[in-house]
Amino acid sequence: MSEQAPPPESLLPYDRWTEEAMRNVALRALEFAAKNGLPGEHHFYLTFRTDHPETKVPGHLKARYPQEMTIVLQHQFWDLKVDRGEQKVSVGLSFGGAAATLVIPFAALVAFWDPHVRVGLRFGEMAAPDAEAEAAPMPAEEPPAAPSPPPEPAGAKSETPAQVVSLDAFRRRPNKE
User: Fold this and answer.
1) In contact, 125 and 136? CB cutoff 8 Å
2) Which of 8, 36, 106, 117 has its CB 3.0 to 4.6 Å from that of 87, i.e. a possible disulfide?
3) 3-state secondary structure the chain
4) Beta strands 163-165 and 119-122: pairing type?
5) For residue 177, is pLDDT > 70?
6) Which residues contact 66 (CB under 8 A, 6 or more apart)?
7) pLDDT at 35 > cutoff 80
8) What band does 127 get if pLDDT is binned at 50, 70 and 90?
């Protein structure tokens, strides 16, 4: 069994470019829903960091979800806006009968999931827009499997596996013979 050397370190920031492209897919879906509403049975799960300094959620939700929270955009949401200039998403939702507007910076997004078509995207840390991040060298060991999407609502049936895309899916893996 021969060990193959890890691929050389990239001088191009492929990891960052791939991350930006995946975020753009989620943002385009949100922009579509903001302009046209959700078509058919599409609905979105958004997972985001509540501990991000620019995230704005009511205090009782921040206390209940101090690090991460998942919301569902399906039937009862309003004022969905994607502001690319400010790099944030805002949406009105009701929690226990109380209306609230959430403000979620793009950098706080952790995952996007549309269970109707079983498309999921998981995001890593977002670099500052002007930062020229260097690509990290590839790990010698096998990267972890892509994380699972959030569970579907109670009573929903899932007959096919989800398609979750993570950055690791695009990385080259060393040959193991």
Assistant:
1) no
2) 106
3) CCECCCCCCCCCCHHHHHHHHHHHHHHHHHHHHHHHCCCCCCCEEEEEECCCCCCECCHHHHHHCCCEEEEEECCCEEEEEEECCCCEEEEEEEECCEEEEEEEEHHHEEEEEECCCCEEEECCCCCCCCCCCCCCCCCCCCCCCCCCCCCCCCCCCCCCCCEEECHHHHCCCCCEC
4) parallel
5) no
6) 50, 51
7) yes
8) low
